[in-house]
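Progress against Task 2.4 (sequence-to-structure conversion) is shown through the following example record, which the project officer requested during the mid-term review.
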Amino acid sequence: MAQQMPSIDAWLAEAKADPGFRGCGMYLVHNGTVRETPKAEVRGVETDGVRPGGKVDGMTFAYDRARVDAAVEAARSLPGIGYVRVWLNEGELAVGDDIMLVLIGGDIRPHVIDALQQLVGTIKNECVSEVEHGA
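Structure tokens generated for the chain above:
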């Protein structure tokens, strides 16, 4: 059963109340959701899930908390990064359900974009398990 995603507005308010906010000139949010198009089709990779041309109607999603925590700590140590927060869903998810929410704050745009790219990539490639189910 999918969990309810936290409020982005609440997260931003908390980030701006954090002691590190004075060094943050921007915040970026990533909200990943379950899509109908198979990963094998959009990414061009082989998966155990739905084949290209098929339709996804849901997925089983799980994650390794220790690996996610390590990825978050690594992101916090990147140049210019002052704030990092991550939420991950888990269980059986349907198309449109939220998979993850990532918020990163930092000093300048290039630092924040790079940190978001790196953190989301690490989470997706090293910390989670996604098994798509066909329609």
